[in-house]
Amino acid sequence: MELSVVQTGLLGALILLVLALPLTVHKVEENLEAFLFLCGAFAVTVTNMWSWELVKTALEDPIKITLAVLVAGLLFKQFHRALQKGAQKTVSVIGLRAAMALIVLTLGLTSSLITAIIAALVLAELVVLLPLNRKGRVQLVVYSCFAIGMGAVLTSVGEPLGTIVLSKLKGAPHFADFWFLLKHLGWYVLAGNILMAVLASRISLKNDEAEQNAQVQSVPSDHSIKNIFMRAAKVYLFVMALVLLGDGLKPLAMQTIAHLSADALYFINTLSAILDNATLAAIEITPDISIRNLMFLLISLIISGGILIPGNIPNIICASKLKITSKEWAKIGVPLGVILMAGYFAVLCIVL
């Protein structure tokens, strides 16, 4: 559909508000799920995209993720102490720095098989068991979510982005099979995961042992039935909001970015920090896309997804459980994302 000047202006202003308000207004930050839901509803209204099919999709799409969060929460409630003992034993055997690097690398490299959701749920449970202060805990979560976002794209199981890509490229000329993305992205993802693991191993550990133990005890267990259901409800609303926001902004994306070059789209895809990367992939990827252009698009989408909380489901799950604010996340995610985007762009230009 062709947007009017007024519609384009309203959607452009909405994008700026989605980026800015969670970082600057405390009330918005505290009620991020409701804020994004209202933004999504506004975008759909501006573009006249309301339909029963969209409402059905918005109601149904969050169900699987929400059930996963709910079931995992109940399981972790039951086996929390066993997990705690395992984490403490691992730290005592290999050391805290090595344990953090191992968590990042393992979850990043297995997320394409166990799904990004399960990897995020495991991360959220493990990180509160480590003797870290608040800053170190947030750093570990952000590095891990970058790694999970990268790794999950390698198969159609890990996250919707991989499913969309393989579906679009299953015919000629690519005939993409289950291992297609692993074949083309594997080394780039491995390098990114190793880098995140190295960064995790270098997190500052300024507290002495007594202070670190106090930090662990100060973290609420958050395993009450009420909290488990409340967290699942927040994730449901968050995913619903992203469905509405993605569909509402889709006409603007199709009108402004769908026909740009891969090099230009690489940086414009930083919109993936607030939009579902599968939505952008559905707009940008065509069956006859070259491998070079595909690589530029996918790398930019998976990196951008880690920059802000709304960019990826693992971010949302971990931020919700650990009460990480948008400002805390952005303080680490934005500079890291900028460096990764620039670094990978240089590498891709040289290699491809």
Question: Main attributes?
Answer:
0% strand; 352 residues; 16 helices; globular; mainly alpha
Task: Assign the structural class, choosing from mainly alpha, mainly beta, alpha/beta, alpha+beta, or little secondary structure.
Answer: mainly alpha
Count of helix runs:
16
Distance between the termini: 35 Å
Q: Tell the overall outline.
A: globular
Count up the domains.
Answer: 1
| H-E order | HHHHHHHHHHHHHHHH
Low-pLDDT stretches are 208-220
Radius of gyration: 20 Å
Major sheet characteristics? none
Number of E-state strands: 0
Query: What's the pLDDT, averaged over the residues?
Result: 88
Beta percentage is under 5%
User: What is the helix content?
Assistant: over 70%
Write a structural description.
This protein has 352 residues and is mainly α. It has one domain. Helix content is 77%, strand content 0%. It has 16 helices and no strands. The longest helix has 43 residues, at 52-94.
Question: Mind sketching the topology for me?
Answer:
Blueprint: H1 5-24, H2 26-30, H3 32-46, H4 52-94, H5 96-114, H6 116-127, H7 134-151, H8 160-168, H9 180-201, H10 209-218, H11 225-256, H12 262-268, H13 277-284, H14 291-304, H15 313-322, H16 326-351
